[in-house]
Amino acid sequence: MGEELPILKGILNGVVNYHNAPVRFGRVPKREKARILAAMQQSTNSRSQEKAISAELEDDQRLLGTVIRAHLDTCEFTRDKVEPMMRRARDQPSYTACPPTLACPLNPNPQPLTGQQELLQDFSKRFSPAIRGVVEFAKRIPGFALLAQDDQVTLLKAGVFEVLLVRLACMFDAQNNSMICLNGQVLKRESIHNSSNARFLMDSMFDFAERLNSLRLSDAEIGLFCSIVVIAADRPGLRNTELIERMHNKLKNALQMVINQNHPNQLGLIHELMKKIPDLRTLNTLHSEKLLAFKMTEQQQLAQQQQQQQMWGSMMAEDECNSKSPGGASTWSSSSDVTMEEVKSPLGSVSSTESMCSGEVASLNDYHHQSHHVS
């Protein structure tokens, strides 16, 4: 046992080459033996993972081509797709006005529909493909699929909305201070109304889009920037931050190389672009808070609806009881000041903005559930 002790200590300290060192456990307790074997396996897996990811990132040209192709294949808002829409909107604008939470380029119908369920389904159909596009893009970033599944999910949950913001920035037109919707309608910035909080969020999104668009980035540069937004080692909850940091730096170097080629006279462009990442995270937080606020409002409305329905059911039962009793003719319709209009579901008067936001929350929850199965 004396000869084994240094090796055993080495195993516990993680300094022994497990492939070459002969390990004899002797009388080591089963629980300790299992812990040692698990540590050995984890170390082996980690080294294998790092080697595989390093191989994925080794060829700079292959890295560039893969990320750019992934962006072009999964993004519906590339320059060649958006420019014709922008020209039509400028030449023959069809203006519309809508509540701020309907004001999204992904929304194919910015005007509130008469049926709330129809509105939710209509928007969620448009929102889900955009999320799937970001997820597919992330999975095609070299090295991403080799990360631990928990790290993949953490990166996607944190980055999906931020990538969507970058992709949708081209739908905001600073020249006319407006936003283009998918159906070609134009939303003027000053037409957004309702709560000051929602207005602040939309103003912030307009300002961000204007600053990003002013950099005049190519689709290749946008795609590489999106990959950097996804592969961020400072996201809370990540396990292998060192490996993700290496991936991030490799992608950043690739972006720097493309920017140097395309903008040789703008030496500070990469730094200006990286300063947009904190702005994206602020917008992400604002958006999440707004969604949560609307979700809570909807839950309060639903509770009120159930309470009203219970009250109405009790009144009806009492009225029926009285009508069957001798001399107990119903006085509901003659003496009560309460009408069906007053006790009907308050959801009938809930603004479509709340329902719209509820739809977005549902879409995100579905995405979070699906993301646990990222391969």
Automatic annotation (TrEMBL):
Region span, Disordered: 312-355
InterPro entries cross-referenced by the UniProt entry: NHR-like_dom_sf, Nucl_hrmn_rcpt_lig-bd, Nuclear_hormone_rcpt_NR1, Nuclear_hrmn_rcpt, ThyrH_rcpt
Pfam families on file: Hormone_recep
Any one GO CC term of the record: nucleus
Entry superkingdom: Eukaryota
Gene Ontology biological process terms, A to Z: cell differentiation; ecdysis, chitin-based cuticle; hormone-mediated signaling pathway; negative regulation of transcription by RNA polymerase II; positive regulation of transcription by RNA polymerase II; regulation of ecdysteroid metabolic process; response to ecdysone
Listed PROSITE patterns: NR_LBD (PS51843)
Keywords: DNA-binding, Metal-binding, Nucleus, Receptor, Transcription, Transcription regulation, Zinc, Zinc-finger
Chain ranges of the NR LBD domain: 59-313
Ranges of biased composition (kind: Low complexity): 323-336
Molecular function in Gene Ontology: heme binding; nuclear receptor activity; RNA polymerase II cis-regulatory region sequence-specific DNA binding; zinc ion binding
PANTHER family registered for this protein in UniProt: ECDYSONE-INDUCED PROTEIN 75B, ISOFORM B, NUCLEAR HORMONE RECEPTOR
Family the UniProt entry places it in: Belongs to the nuclear hormone receptor family. NR1 subfamily.
Protein name in the entry: NR LBD domain-containing protein
Source species: Graphocephala atropunctata
Lineage, uppermost ranks: Eukaryota, Metazoa, Ecdysozoa, Arthropoda, Hexapoda
